């Protein structure tokens, strides 16, 4: 990349402290017009804080932000937007009751000459925007019914409609399917051509290498290195991020595979998935691969009794079972770690200990009074086993990083002592160091004889962790591969609904 | 390729039609309920469906409807104003007492006084909620009693009765324009004005945004505190005005005037489909809610059923409306999801 004359925005020696936590410590960042810069670091490294400072949500304690050579202040999100800075946040921040078009234009409705909201213009512009993004969404749909991926696309449309000079994306691809990621990349490259300065946070290294011109790595709130992508290897990046060498990303241990534990036969749920059959053995990890919306999570929800199947049978240990509720699923030995830990997995205002013991709170009480002593002992034990990094088991879960939150969710279900563990995107939004730890934990559990279903949108993860892989496409099973047999290409073929010849 | 895009277009228009329909389900449902009541009751009591009785219903609903407009704004932002009855009562007494002391007072000046009283009390609510950061339900529960207490202190057990006030004041409620009582016209004008503002002014849309997702509203730079404060202010203002009309309509005003009005107002708003979680609902819905409840009230009167039934029915209507809302929301989400996956 040729270094252009003047940076779009410069962050100089910025520090930020939240209570006792030093979130940022003398951080530098320079963004040039027409560059894509990746911002990398483990969770808790300070990336999101930096993004929020650029977005005008937080203000730095010390240090300055410069645009066009002059020092500026960003007091609120409105000012940042006014300066041409658009931010796509990690979690979609939309208005569920309002439709797609209004979500794009909220806070800056187009007006006619009487000052009225110009609905027609708004619908047309958003329609146009969505068409140019090749997104088949109706502008009239309330955001309420949209999937996370679609909501993320609305966020992207919103950012684009701002005609921003600086675009900041905090893990924009976490919820997107491969096809949507591809579209986003095409758009990102177009914006780069137009001279927009782009900063994007990601945990997927292959995306970084495909897209980024330069990489900035942070660790523990401090700036580690900024370098052209071409001068770095994945190993370099990971080393800078974690400050130590990691041998492999996916340490799948050997596990002895036992008898069939779970036998699912022709499970269907109207409009959601159809004719799903598979067997799961003790000590086996069965990967569920497929695009977002392929019906994987929906199958898991039926197995765990959240939703109900219309037809089909579930057998456990050669006995047919009826799972009517999560409670009955738990009695049959199921545990389900959901995809959206914020909404479904954790009570953010509870402590680590209270969260971990939530499913078995009944067992902990004597005469209707909580046995705090036992709660503490058990949660301490699991915190240590899973290496939850915190100030103690009484720390509130909302203060933890994503990776550590995920470990708490995991612990919560492991405490129930399940025989069948369903993990839905267990490493989404988790940094690489914590990811390896989660993988180690999964693999340990399998070697102890637990039967595991691993739903993941990251192909390398599924392929490396699973003994077998079930691929789903639009609600139907599209292929089952043994570990030795599965590779990226075959799985991707099945997941995108293309017929595989050698299977017939 | 062509077929895919055609399919997409059909799905799109189906979807928007469906969504549009669901958006209107509440209003249509209320109209149906209204229709059923009208048919059933007029079979029993012929005088139910006469112009004079319809006028009677609308008159009894008019003041409540004006207050419900302000309440709608507040509830849209995921807040609630429980002090409305006390503000109406206080304004009604202050204005009626002014006419009692000085019968020659200019009518416009008196209306202005009522409005200012409402504005001040509404502003206090708004300040406590936005600056004090106290949940609205607590703030306005407190001010419900505070304002009523203030009313008692000022009234001191006195009562203003029809013979104490000049006809010019009472005429506010009895005047007719083109044969329609002014009271009904006031309510209709206010409802239309705010229905327009909620639909077509950027600030109106931003009220929906605040209630729908407060955090996201902050992120897109909406000045939430200002707008929430504004909604309490307008709620107070409309209560103040409604208080003036109350005084003119009932003529007899003491410190207990309009007690319990807040529950009727909340009932009308909730039955009218304004989500208590904020972010959805329309003025039209709230008005229909008020009219349905007013019609039930009138029907019970004509059927000579006990007034005690009324409270039970109002209560049942709230529970039914909220339950129905939950069902419709779930159904809508499910339908949209299934459509998407096909």
Description of the molecule:
The complex is a heterodimer of chains A (504) and B (342). Chain A is α/β, with parallel strands linked by helices and 504 residues long. Chain A folds into 3 domains: 9-242, P-loop containing nucleotide triphosphate hydrolases (Rossmann fold); 253-333 and 422-433 and 445-504, P-loop containing nucleotide triphosphate hydrolases (Rossmann fold, 3-Layer(aba) Sandwich); 348-417, no CATH class. Chain A has helices at residues 47-54, 77-82, 100-105, 119-132, 148-161, 178-193, 205-211, 234-242, 296-303, 326-331, 341-345, 352-356, 372-385, 402-414, 432-447, 459-465, 488-495; strands spanning 9-18, 21-31, 36-40, 62-67, 70-72, 85-88, 166-170, 197-201, 214-219, 222-228, 260-269, 273-281, 285-290, 311-316, 319-321, 334-337, 365-366, 369-370, 420-424, 451-455, 468-473, 476-482. In chain A, strands 6-7-8-3-9-10 form a 6-stranded mixed β-sheet, with helices on both faces. Chain A has a 6-stranded mixed β-sheet with strand order 16-19-20-13-21-22, sandwiched between helices. In chain A, a hairpin with a 3-residue loop joins strand 11 (260-269) and strand 12. Chain A starts with 8 loop residues before the first strand and ends in a 9-residue tail after the last helix. By secondary structure, chain B is mostly helical. Helix content of chain B is 78%, strand content 1%. Chain B has 13 helices and 2 strands, in the order ααααααββααααααα. In chain B, strands 1-2 form a two-stranded antiparallel sheet. The interface between A and B is large, with 42 and 40 residues.
Helices and strands, with pairings:
The complex is a heterodimer of chains A (504) and B (342).
Chain A: E1 9-18, E2 21-31, E3 36-40, H1 47-54, E4 62-67, E5 70-72, H2 77-82, E6 85-88, H3 100-105, H4 119-132, H5 148-161, E7 166-170, H6 178-193, E8 197-201, H7 205-211, E9 214-219, E10 222-228, H8 234-242, E11 260-269, E12 273-281, E13 285-290, H9 296-303, E14 311-316, E15 319-321, H10 326-331, E16 334-337, H11 341-345, H12 352-356, E17 365-366, E18 369-370, H13 372-385, H14 402-414, E19 420-424, H15 432-447, E20 451-455, H16 459-465, E21 468-473, E22 476-482, H17 488-495
Parallel strand pairs in A: 3-8, 3-9, 6-7, 7-8, 13-20, 13-21, 16-19, 19-20
Antiparallel strand pairs in A: 1-2, 1-4, 4-5, 9-10, 11-12, 11-14, 14-15, 17-18, 21-22
Chain B: H1 2-44, H2 51-76, H3 84-101, H4 107-130, H5 136-155, H6 167-174, E1 176-177, E2 180-181, H7 182-200, H8 202-212, H9 214-219, H10 224-250, H11 261-271, H12 283-302, H13 307-341
Antiparallel strand pairs in B: 1-2
Helix pairs in contact in B: 1-12, 1-13, 2-7, 2-10, 2-11, 2-12, 3-4, 3-5, 3-10, 4-5, 4-10, 6-10, 7-8, 8-10, 11-12, 11-13, 12-13
């Amino acid at each position: 990349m040729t270094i252009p004359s003047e940076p779009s925005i410069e962050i100089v020696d910025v520090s930020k402290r939240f209570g006792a936590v030093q979130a940022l410590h003398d951080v530098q960042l320079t963004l040039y017009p027409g560059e894509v810069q990746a911002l990398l670091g483990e969770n808790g490294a300070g990336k999101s804080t930096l993004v929020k400072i650029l977005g005008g949500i937080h203000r730095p304690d010390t240090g300055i932000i410069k645009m066009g050579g002059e020092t500026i202040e960003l007091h609120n999100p409105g000012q940042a937007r006014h300066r041409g800075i658009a931010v796509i946040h990690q979690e979609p921040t939309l208005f569920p009751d309002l439709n797609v078009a209004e979500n794009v234009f909220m806070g800056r409705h187009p007006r006619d000459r009487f000052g009225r909201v110009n609905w027609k213009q708004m619908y047309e512009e958003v329609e146009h925007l969505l068409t140019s993004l090749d997104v088949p969404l109706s502008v009239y749909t309330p955001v309420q019914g949209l999937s996370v991926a679609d909501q993320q696309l609305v966020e992207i449309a919103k950012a684009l409609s701002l005609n921003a000079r600086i675009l900041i994306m905090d893990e924009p691809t976490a919820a997107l399917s491969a096809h949507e990621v591809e579209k986003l990349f095409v758009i990102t490259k177009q914006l780069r051509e137009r001279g927009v300065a782009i900063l994007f946070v990601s945990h997927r290294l292959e995306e970084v290498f495909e897209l980024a011109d330069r990489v900035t790595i942070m660790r523990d709130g401090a700036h580690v290195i900024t370098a052209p992508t071409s001068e770095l290897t994945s190993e370099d990046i990971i080393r800078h991020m974690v400050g130590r060498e990691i041998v492999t990303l996916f340490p799948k241990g050997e596990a002895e595979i036992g008898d069939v534990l779970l036998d699912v036969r022709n499970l269907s749920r109207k409009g959601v998935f159809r004719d799903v059959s598979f067997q799961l053995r003790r000590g086996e990890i069965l990967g569920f691969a497929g695009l977002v919306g392929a019906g994987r999570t929906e199958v898991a929800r039926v197995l765990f009794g959240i939703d109900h199947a219309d037809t089909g049978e579930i057998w456990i240990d050669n006995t047919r079972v009826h799972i009517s509720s999560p409670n009955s699923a738990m009695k049959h030995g199921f545990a389900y770690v959901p995809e959206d830990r914020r909404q479904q997995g954790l009570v953010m205002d509870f402590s680590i200990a209270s969260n971990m013991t939530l499913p078995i709170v009944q067992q902990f009480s004597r005469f209707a009074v909580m046995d705090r002593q036992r709660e503490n002992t058990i949660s301490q034990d699991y915190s240590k086993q899973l290496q939850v990094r915190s100030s103690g088991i009484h720390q509130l879960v909302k203060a933890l990083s994503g990776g550590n939150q995920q470990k708490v969710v995991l612990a919560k279900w492991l405490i129930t002592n399940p025989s069948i563990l369903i993990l839905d995107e267990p490493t989404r939004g988790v940094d690489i160091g914590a990811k390896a730890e989660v993988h180690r934990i999964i693999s340990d559990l399998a070697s102890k004889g637990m039967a595991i279903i691993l739903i993941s949108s990251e192909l390398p993860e599924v392929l490396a962790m699973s003994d077998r892989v079930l691929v789903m496409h639009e609600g139907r099973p599209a292929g089952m591969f043994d570990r030795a047999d599965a590779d990226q290409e075959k799985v991707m073929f099945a997941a995108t609904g293309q017929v595989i010849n050698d299977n017939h | 390729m062509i077929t895919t895009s055609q399919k997409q277009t059909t799905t799109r228009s189906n979807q928007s039609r469906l969504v549009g329909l669901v958006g209107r389900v509440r209003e249509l449902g209320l109209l149906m309920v209204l229709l059923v009541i009208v048919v059933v009751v007029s079979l029993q009591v012929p005088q139910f469906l006469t112009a004079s009785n319809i006028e009677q219903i609308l008159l009894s609903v008019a003041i409540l409807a004006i207050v419900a407009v302000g309440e709608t704004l507040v509830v849209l932002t995921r807040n609630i104003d429980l002090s409305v009855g006390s503000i109406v009562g206080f304004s009604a007494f202050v204005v009626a007492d002014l006419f009692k002391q000085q019968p020659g007072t200019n009518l416009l000046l008196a209306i202005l006084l009522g409005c200012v009283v409402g504005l001040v009390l509404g502003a206090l609510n708004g300040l406590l909620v936005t600056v004090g950061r106290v949940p609205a339900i607590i703030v306005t529960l407190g001010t419900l009693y505070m304002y009523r207490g203030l009313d008692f202190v000022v009234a001191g057990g006195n009562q203003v009765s029809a013979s104490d006030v000049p006809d010019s004041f009472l005429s506010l409620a009895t005047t007719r324009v083109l044969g329609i009582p002014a009271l009904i016209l006031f309510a209709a004008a206010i409802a239309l004005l705010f229905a327009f503002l909620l639909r077509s002014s950027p600030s109106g849309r931003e009220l929906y945004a605040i209630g729908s997702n407060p955090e996201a509203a902050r992120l897109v730079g909406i000045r939430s505190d200002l707008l929430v404060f504004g909604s309490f202010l307008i709620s107070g203002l409309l209560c103040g005005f409604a208080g003036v009309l109350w005084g003119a309509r009932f003529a007899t005003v003491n410190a207990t005037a309009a007690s319990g009005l807040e529950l009727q107002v909340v009932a009308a708003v909730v039955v009218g489909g304004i989500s208590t979680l904020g972010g959805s609902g329309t003025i039209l819905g709230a008005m229909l809610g008020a009219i349905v409840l007013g019609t039930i009230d009138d029907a019970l009167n004509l059927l000579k059923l006990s007034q005690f039934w009324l409270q039970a029915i109002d209560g049942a209507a709230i529970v039914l409306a909220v339950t129905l809302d939950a069902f419709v929301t779930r159904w809508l989400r499910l339908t949209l999801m299934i459509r998407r996956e096909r």
